[in-house]
Every structure is written in C-alpha cells, then in structure tokens.
Specification:
About 30% of the residues lie in helices and about 20% in strands. With about 210 residues, it is α/β, with parallel strands linked by helices. The protein has one domain: TIM Barrel. It is globular and about 45 Å long. The relative contact order is 0.16.
Length: about 210
C-alpha cells in the first residue's frame, strides 16, 4: 500500500513546509486541482504545483477536477514517476485527455464520482495505469467516508483482473476504514484531514499504517 498525503488539507500559506514535514513518511503527494466549475471549489493551479515540484522528492499525483483536463494537463511540470488523473465526467473527450497526459510524460489515471457507474471507465482501462475511486463527493476536504466505496473498489478490482492498474481511494480515509479499502483492493490510499488535521502528523501516518497490521 502506498500512502499519499493530500495537500488539500495542508496549510496553503506554508505548503512547502507542510509537505516536507511528512515527506519522509509518504510515498507520494496528492494534489487536488479544482477549477471552480467542475466542482464548486477553487484550489491549486499549475503555477503552485510546479513551484513545489523541484523542492520535493516524492512523486506527484495530480488529480484534475476540472472541465477541460486536456487543456490543463500540459501545463504541469512532471516526471515519468508522476501521475495525472482526469475525470470521466469532464467535458473533454477521454481519448483526447489520455493523449494529452501521455505527451507530458506522466502516467495516466482516471477517476469517477461516487454516483458514476463503473461501466463508464471500462472502455479506457487498457489506456490507464491508475483508477481513482472517490469515497466522498469531489470538491471539498474533510467529508465523511462513503461506505459504499468499499464495494466499488472490490468490483473494480474484479473488473481490472490481470491488468497492471493501481486502484487509489480518496476521501474520508482514517485508521477506522483504511484496512477495509485495502482489503477490497486499493493499493494507493490518499489521506488529507486525518494527517494534516492531527496535532502530530507523523503519529497520524503511523496510525494509518499500523491499522493495516
């Protein structure tokens, strides 16, 4: 299991320091990029993410919650170890977005809202390296975990079968439910409030990993 602290829950006024405070205990960093249209919130854009790219060692997972992911994707400075994730519900045709992400050199990820049928992404599974299952409605951090996400992860793992695709889960993850989602088939766990909302971030990360034992 890879653990990705979500910087959406960090102090925006000290993002570099926040990220560095947990970097030694993280596998990658998760960025929620929102445009105020696809979801009713506005967060990081390419200038912010790119500014931190050269100062952190862990790979980036860039989650595009935007109407036009094919336009946004090329604006990010990425390495081959990074992943750019787009939503199947976005306005741009999925094939166009996949091509745009590939041209950046990053791996391609696809995501879907909790109410979107898994069938929507099946035609693109041979084109992506990661599927991000939302366990909250996208747009805001600090929401409660939707328990039906566990079944969605299990069904998705069966659909993926022998394909070399990771399953990530994002939203409301903490020590009480991390084992459930990992048992169901998730191998990348994104956690925001449970880490950056804790008085001791390192202890919070250790509690997440310990819950898997």
């Amino acid at each position: 299991m890879k653990l990705a602290p979500s910087l959406l829950a960090a102090d925006f006024g000290a993002l570099r320091e926040e990220a560095r405070s947990v970097e030694a205990h993280a596998d990658l960093f998760h960025w929620d990029v929102m445009d105020g249209h696809f979801v009713p919130n506005l967060t990081f854009g390419p200038p912010v993410v790119n500014a931190l790219k050269g100062t952190l060692e862990r790979p980036f997972g860039i989650h595009l919650m935007v109407d036009r992911p094919a336009t946004y994707a090329p604006q990010f400075s990425v390495d081959p170890g990074d992943t750019i994730v787009f939503h199947i519900e976005a306005d741009d045709p999925p094939a166009r977005v996949i091509d745009a992400i590939r041209e950046t050199g990053a791996s391609v990820g696809i995501s879907l809202r909790p109410g979107t049928p898994l069938d929507r992404i099946v035609p693109y599974l041979d084109e992506v390296r990661l599927v991000l299952v939302m366990s909250v409605e996208p747009g805001f951090g600090g929401q409660a975990f939707l328990p039906e996400a566990v079944d969605r992860i299990a069904r998705l793992r069966a659909i993926i079968a022998r394909r070399s695709i990771s399953i990530a889960v994002d939203g409301g993850i903490g020590p009480a439910n991390i084992a459930q989602v990992v048992r169901a088939g998730a191998d990348v766990v994104i956690a925001g409030s449970s880490i950056f909302g804790a008085p001791d971030r390192i202890a919070a990360i250790r509690a997440l990993r310990e819950a898997l034992r």
